[in-house]
Specification:
alpha+beta; Alpha-Beta Plaits; 2 domains; 8 helices; 6 strands; 36% helix
Length: 225
């Protein structure tokens, strides 16, 4: 799930090329698994009580289908500002290093990737020493555009579409909470995506062949086992 308001923020950006003020304090740790097997390992890290500080944060795993973004798989942990982001970054780097691979990229990023397409300085999380390398600041005149947008539209118009899958968590015989129906649907989609792009690491998860049936997906490079 996205944090509340993200659909409103993206709508403002795509309509007016304005990055909302909220997004300037939005930081996320981005993990880039190299294949679907590593994506599943990341999911386990996200749900492990051993990394409780991560469990308390909004986070998600996904396949990367945006043409403008590199890689095939991503994990995101949403942070409360740059200081919190740097703390979560260290924890995540250690967890990924120990449980997946030291070669998996883990970085701190500001806002959404789409913003960088028209505002390349926006993603910077710290100022550089050379001229022109300062962290981008919110433009005061953008507030007028935000206010006009909010007067014209309601937030409800930009909420996340209702999930048609079952979000009710399952429980095992010993009473432990497991994944919901929509979670399982997403995992199946990841496996089909892997099969479609030729990422055979999925076989270590399924033990059998998954029929590739996702047309028109991008085919980024990946490392398979």
């Amino acid at each position: 799930m996205f944090p509340v308001g993200c659909y409103r923020h993206m709508e403002i950006y795509f309509r007016h090329d304005v990055i909302p003020q909220y997004c300037f304090d939005c930081y996320k740790v981005v993990i880039s698994p190299r294949n679907v097997l590593e994506l599943f390992k990341l999911l386990i890290i996200f749900d492990s009580e051993e990394f409780g500080l991560l469990v308390d944060r909004k986070r998600k795993c996904m396949v990367e289908e945006r043409d403008s973004c590199s890689g095939a798989y991503k994990g995101f942990i949403y942070c409360e500002g740059v200081k919190d982001g740097n703390e979560i970054l260290k924890i995540t780097q250690q967890a990924v290093y120990e449980n997946i691979s030291p070669d998996v990229a883990v970085v701190l990023k500001r806002g959404c990737s789409e913003f960088a397409e028209t505002h390349p300085k926006f993603p910077r999380t710290r100022s550089g020493k050379k001229p022109g390398q300062v962290v981008m600041q919110y433009k005061k005149n953008w507030k007028v555009q935000e206010n006009l947008f909010d007067k014209k539209y309601t937030l409800n118009e930009f909420e996340y579409p209702p999930d048609k899958n079952d979000d009710t968590p399952y429980f095992s015989e010993d009473g432990l909470k497991t994944y919901s129906g929509s979670d399982v649907f997403c995992m199946q989609y990841w496996l089909r995506y892997a099969a479609t792009i030729g990422d055979m690491s999925y076989f270590k998860i399924t033990g059998g062949v998954v029929v590739p049936s996702l047309p028109n997906v991008k085919r980024p490079p990946f490392i398979s086992y």
